[in-house]
C-alpha cells in the first residue's frame, strides 16, 4: 500500500498532540464517523436517505448530516451532485477513506473475537480477517473503481462476496 507523501495530508486542524494515534482518534473517535464510513464502504449507500434508513444503529438525521459534513471537510468523503436527480447528492469515499479498509477489517476481527456479536453481522468481519491483506487490496481496488472512477460495483467483486455471505447468514439465523 502506497504511503501518502507530505503534501497529501488531510485538511484537519492540529490535534492536542502530534501523535498519529491521537490525531486519528480525534478525527474518527466519535460514535458515528466510522459507522458512516462503514455503511458507505460495505453497504454501498451513497445518498443521505439510504444512509439514514440503512443505519441499523439508528443514527439521527441531524447527527448523520453533521458526520457527513465533518467527513467531507476532513477529506474522507466527497459530496457530488447525483446525475440522476438534481436535488440529490452522493457521498463517495476518497483514497484516504479507502485506505481505512485494513483498520476496519482489524476492528471487525477484534470485535468478533472479543465481543458478543451476532453471526449475521460478524460474517463479513470474519471473511475480511480470513482473506487478509490480499483480500483487503482487492476490496480497496474495487472501492477505487466505484468511488473514484465512477464504475459500477462488479457483480463478482469482494463487496458482492461479503454481501452474499451476510444474506446467507441472515437466512440461516431466520431458519431458511
Describe this protein's structure.
With 176 residues, the chain is mainly α. The protein has 8 helices and 2 strands, in the order ααααββαααα. The protein has a two-stranded antiparallel sheet with strand order 1-2. A hairpin with a 7-residue loop joins β1 and β2. α6 runs antiparallel to α7 and α7 packs antiparallel against α8.
Mean pLDDT: 90
Note the total helix count: 8
Form type: globular
Total strands: the figure is 2
Please outline the major beta sheet: 2 strands, antiparallel
- Low-confidence blocks of residues: 1-6
Give the CA-CA distance, first to last residue: 40 Å
| Order of secondary-structure elements | HHHHEEHHHH
Q: Please give the share of residues in helix.
A: 55-70%
Helix/strand/pairing class, anyone?
A: mainly alpha
Give the gist of this structure.
The protein has 176 residues and is mainly alpha-helical.
Question: What keywords describe this structure?
Answer:
single chain; 176 residues; mainly alpha; two-stranded antiparallel sheet; 6% strand; disordered N terminus
Helix/strand layout:
Elements: H1 20-28, H2 33-43, H3 48-54, H4 61-73, E1 77-81, E2 89-93, H5 95-98, H6 101-114, H7 119-148, H8 158-173
Antiparallel strand pairs: 1-2
Helix pairs in contact: 6-7, 7-8
